[in-house]
Amino acid sequence: MIKRAEDLKGTTTMLTRVALDQKTRDEIASLLQETLGELIDFSLQLKQGHWNCVGRHFRDVHLQLDEILASTREHADEVAERIAALGIATEGNAGTTAKASKLEPFPSGLMDADAVSHALAERFGALLKHARERQARLGELDAVSEDVMIAMLRDLEKHAWMLNARTADKA
Ligand SMILES: [Fe+2]
Fold it and tell me: Which residues contact 135 (CB under 8 A, 6 or more apart)?
């Protein structure tokens, strides 16, 4: 039955042409949703760092964080649209995603640019670790959704390398 847009309040699923059963789609969507929340949270943290970094390396860090942000936002969109393709509503509101994210909150106030890089590199590492854990399960459920996660990991792990190269943290 076709619902008119004004009747959709509270609806979280829709007809999909993806040939996977509802239970499988629900589990995939929930794994993708967890990563989406962390990508949104991390996007906000990147801007927090972009705006509040100070010190000798201000300009380099300020510009690098926007490069990471562009890629993070692009992949957040891909992940969200994969959930939509599965016929399931996506949650992208700041309050809800912030509550669900497992990333450490980012400090408030001005910070030295090197400290900003270090704090973001740590949170980036956590996001990528969680994403790999979910990717392993996605591989068992749906290669197409796993592919979205792999593409994300390929780009973001590269950005994480470049951020780590700046902080030169020992392994
Ligand atoms: Fe800016």
Answer: 146, 149, 150, 153
